[in-house]
Design goal:
heterodimer, A: 404 residues, alpha/beta, Rossmann fold, 4 domains, six-stranded antiparallel sheet, 18 strands, 27% strand, globular, B: 518 residues, FAD/NAD(P)-binding domain, seven-stranded mixed sheet, 20% strand
Chain lengths: 404, 518
């Protein structure tokens, strides 16, 4: 290499080891490459494990109950990436011109690499669920993120004694975890995990995967299911009520040490997981033994602590967007609507996935004005000082200007 | 006029520093970052109640408020020093070689972050070698001063007699393999292992590290103190970005560079992944030269860059466990923030195990809330547990086996550390596992390299010519010097200075031309 002759370095020949290092360099050049053969390798390696986007096509629409359907998605062109049972994908949709997205837990098992099932229940005052249930048919094409999220069995510390508290469509990740557990037990043939599913539904007709789960329970000792209906019909003879401390004690015993060894997974509507978490706290189960799947932005931020006094949910503020191309856009938004949602309705967007404040992909910078960040917003400790917020759970509390 | 004077690709330490220095120096600067957050590896993430530091273990070069060192000056010049709450660490590190049976550990030495106390501690543990310890530490100190002060001056003069008279220790020891120097000074194998433990921060065993690097590291850490910044390295990254924006800089997140467009071997513009093209005079690339020259540049890799890369070898990656524990550092038995747990006095054994997915023999455990309680929720501990590891074995795994392999290896890492800190597993509240492929995913580096190329003797800047085949294209990052935080901040700063100088020259040239045409 020409370096050795550069005048600045000539004097360094006086340094012991300088020539040896230069000789070593020459040796390395002879056997080394310029890495051009590795072109694209980083991108390809990452794309097989964590693709940024999946191109999906609906292969089948399965009617589960009157209020729930499972949409089966196959990949176009590539093999679907592996995932851990309990994880979700964020499904991008275009509803009459509005681009938005919703995260859905994958309800099929990770052993099934041919497709992902998403089980979607109608949300009474929902938006995307109506579209997915009413308008989507086999052959429709979608984009999604790759599988994401931290709600899954982590063998490093979760142990083998598992309890899953599922409310309504919160059964979706439970189904994936249950089938995964059973498949793993079959392949590895080792005395492995056991899982107690406590599945709460409002009405009998709402129960999803009833037959399949009953069959699995019959065939496998590792699975125990407790069914619970909170608004039963008169003819219903099973358990009724809510997942409370009393029920959990009855089902799992009151030995605290035994309870502490279990890992509790909670997935359901926000009110459900809040309630369940409280009950477990009452039973003195430590926070480290409880995993709660996030579930969207708070519905009524104006009821939360920290919400500015005198600010009424129906108040409107102006949102100014500083776009990447240097231009500005502006729209009006209600203070109780998550910023990301109002941005999307007005034709703007930010990358997003969990839409519950956790994944931080949708972070935007508030340049002027203020937003309300609820507890759901898992901000980094220095974020608020510099105006960064997670737009999926941030609520504008004054006229604001943001950088996207 | 071009859209920008300079475009910086990548908001890692060097990119952020370069962008901030450029903008504050008057250059119209665009910063492109493919992620949604500034910092590269200088970042944090949240799990449960914990905010985990991703990469910073011990920030060097800060000095104290009373006797500040170079990083304080750089951060002041960048306009962020008053934003940072610096936490000084009390210890350099603890080295433990655990006993096989339940006896006292074979080695268990904690080195304080103070030159005098360091000497005293080493002598107390190894009294037979007290004179050698004195001599060795004196050599480290003097050699460091030669490296910082005299060597650059001597190189500027180009006069060998100046070099010989001002840098005698550098001539004798500077480029000697560290292992040889350790053997020359010490006979006790334990002592050698203890004093060389910082080799992990370079990623090569002492036999492959020039002694100047190892000597400077132990001396500078002891003299200027290792430290942390509250909020972690993300606090530094966020402050830099804020300073850049306040100076009028423009940043685009979620916007990777797709192409560097050139004309007649001169940088013309950068095309983003979204298809936008921004013209500029200078490009500062904070991504690897492999990516910059082989993938971003719109012409075949220039011979000069190709030759340089042929003499390089990919540096190590790492396997890291981020652990949020439901117990205090005291309950865990932590007595120093940085802990090296070793199975063997020979670092080459460790280097061997770094090549594949085999039982780890050297692990490092950092407890972030040992020196400052704000780094974890009350009553809990924030820990990173890692070993250095190359990525190839992970790349060779079928994707279906990746998750299981990840947990299996993580288990081994915990087993390894539990011989010193027995209650890790039962206190886990949160854990995230990062393999070399995770590093690759977030850093976009070949092999998931965390320190850039291997840094053996011939990789040092003095053996390298600046790659200038493409006018206006500058490289700044761990790939062009040493890895780690201080070196990357410094290379960002010096690259910005060089670019500002060029911009000034161009401007005065243009002015001259305008005058002569007038």
């Amino acid at each position: 290499m020409p370096n050795s002759s550069s005048a600045k370095n000539n004097i360094l020949h006086a340094v012991k080891g300088y020539q040896e290092a230069l000789d070593h360099q020459q040796e390395l050049i002879k056997t080394g490459t310029d890495f051009n053969e590795q072109k694209g390798q980083v991108a390809n390696t990452i794309a097989t494990l964590h693709p940024k986007r999946l191109q999906l096509v609906v292969s089948e629409v399965i009617e589960d109950t009157a209020s729930t359907k499972t949409l089966r998605f196959k990949a176009e062109g590539i093999v679907l990436p592996p995932f851990q049972a309990g994880q979700y994908i964020n499904l991008f949709v275009n509803i009459e011109g509005t681009e938005t997205a919703r995260p859905y837990a994958i309800s099929s098992a990770p052993q099934q690499r041919g497709y992902y099932d998403l089980t979607i229940k109608r949300v009474a005052d929902g938006y995307v669920s109506h579209y997915l249930l009413d308008d989507v048919k086999a052959g429709d094409r979608f984009q999604s993120t790759g599988p994401m999220g931290t709600f899954y069995h982590n063998p490093l510390f979760h142990g083998d004694d598992l309890v899953f508290l599922a409310g309504g469509s919160g059964i979706a990740p439970a189904r994936s975890m249950i089938i995964n557990m059973i498949e793993n037990t079959l392949t590895h043939r080792k005395a492995a995990q056991k899982l107690h599913l406590v599945y709460a539904s409002s009405y009998e007709v709402d129960v999803i995967y009833e037959n399949e789960l009953k069959q699995l329970e019959k065939e496998h000792d590792s699975l125990t299911i407790t069914w619970l209906i909170s608004r039963p019909t008169e003819k219903y003879t099973g358990r009724t009520g809510h997942v409370n401390a009393e029920l959990l004690t009855e089902l799992l015993g009151s030995d605290l040490e035994k309870l502490q060894r279990k890992m509790f997974y909670i997935c359901g509507p926000t009110s459900f997981h809040d309630f369940c978490a409280q009950q477990l706290e009452q039973l003195k189960v430590k926070a480290r033994r409880v995993r709660i799947e996030c579930n969207g932005p708070p519905k009524h931020p104006e009821t939360l602590t920290g919400w500015p006094q005198d600010l009424i949910a129906s108040d409107k503020v102006s949102v100014t967007i500083n776009k990447a191309d240097g231009t500005q856009g502006q729209f009006e938004a209600r203070v109780d609507e998550p910023l990301l949602n109002s941005m999307e309705r007005n034709g703007y967007s930010a990358e997003n996935a969990c839409r519950s404040g956790e994944c931080s992909l949708c972070r935007v910078k508030v340049v002027k004005g203020s937003v309300f960040n609820p507890q759901e917003a898992r901000l980094r400790s220095t974020d608020e000082a510099y105006g960064w917020c997670h737009s999926c759970v941030a609520f504008p509390t004054s006229d604001i200007e943001i950088m996207v | 006029m071009t859209d920008f004077d300079a475009i910086v690709i990548g908001a890692g330490n060097a990119g952020l520093t370069a962008a901030t220095a450029l903008q504050r120096g008057g250059a119209r600067t665009l910063l492109l970052e493919r992620h949604n957050i500034p910092g590269g590896c200088a970042t944090s993430f949240i799990r449960g109640e914990f905010e985990f530091e991703v990469a910073l273990h011990q920030l060097s070069g800060m000095g104290t408020e009373k006797s500040p060192f170079i990083m304080r000056k750089i951060f002041t010049d960048l306009g962020i020093m008053d934003q940072l709450n610096v936490v000084e660490e009390r210890e350099l590190y603890r080295v433990v070689l655990p006993s096989i049976e339940n006896k006292d550990h074979e080695i268990d030495v904690t080195l304080p972050a103070n030159i005098k106390a360091l000497k005293k501690t080493l002598i107390a543990h190894y009294p037979d070698e007290s004179e050698n310890i004195e001599a060795y530490l004196t050599l480290c100190e003097k050699l460091s001063l030669e490296c910082f002060m005299m060597l650059p001056r001597a190189q500027k003069t180009g006069d060998q007699t100046v070099l010989e008279s001002t840098c005698p220790l550098y001539i004798q020891y500077g480029l000697t393999p560290s292992k040889d120097v350790l053997n020359e000074f010490f006979t006790n194998k334990d002592l050698k292992a203890v004093i060389a433990a910082y080799w992990c921060y370079i990623g090569l065993p002492p036999k492959d590290i020039p002694f100047c690097d190892l000597a400077v590291m132990i001396y500078a850490y002891a003299a200027f103190k290792p430290c942390h910044v509250q909020g972690g390295s993300q606090a530094i990254s966020s402050a830099l970005l804020e300073s850049f924006l306040a100076a009028g800089g423009k940043v685009l997140f979620n916007t990777g560079a797709e192409k560097i467009l050139s004309e007649d071997n001169q940088v013309k513009a950068v095309q983003t992944e979204h298809g936008d093209i921004f013209s500029c005079e200078h490009v500062i690339s904070n991504t690897s030269p492999l990516h910059t020259f082989n993938e971003l540049l719109d012409i075949p890799t220039p011979q000069q860059a190709s030759d340089d890369m042929k003499s390089r070898r990919l540096g190590t990656s790492a396997f890291v466990l981020y652990l949020g524990l439901d117990c205090t550092p005291e309950e865990l038995g932590v007595t120093a923030a940085s802990n090296f747990i070793i199975d063997d006095r020979d670092e080459e054994v460790a280097f061997e195990t770094m090549q594949g997915i085999v039982d780890p023999t050297h692990t490092m455990l950092t407890c972030y809330n040992h020196d400052d309680p704000t780094f974890a929720p009350p009553g809990k501990s924030s820990i990173s547990l890692l070993c250095l590891q190359y990525s190839q074995a992970w790349q060779d795994l079928p994707v279906e086996e990746y998750a299981q392999a990840k947990y299996d290896f993580a288990d081994k890492l915990i087993d390894h550390a539990e011989r010193v800190f027995p209650n890790i597993r039962k206190n886990i509240e949160e854990v995230e596992v990062a393999t070399p492929l995770t590093m690759m995913r977030y850093l976009n580096t070949p092999g998931g390299a965390i320190y850039g190329f291997q840094q053996n003797t011939q990789d040092a800047a003095m053996f390298r010519e600046r790659i200038n085949a493409i006018q206006g294209l500058h490289m700044a990052g761990s790939w062009n010097g040493m890895g780690g935080f201080q070196p990357t901040y410094m290379i960002g700063e010096s690259t910005a200075r060089a670019v500002l100088k060029k911009l000034k020259n161009t401007q005065s040239e243009i002015k001259q031309q305008e005058l002569s045409h007038a």
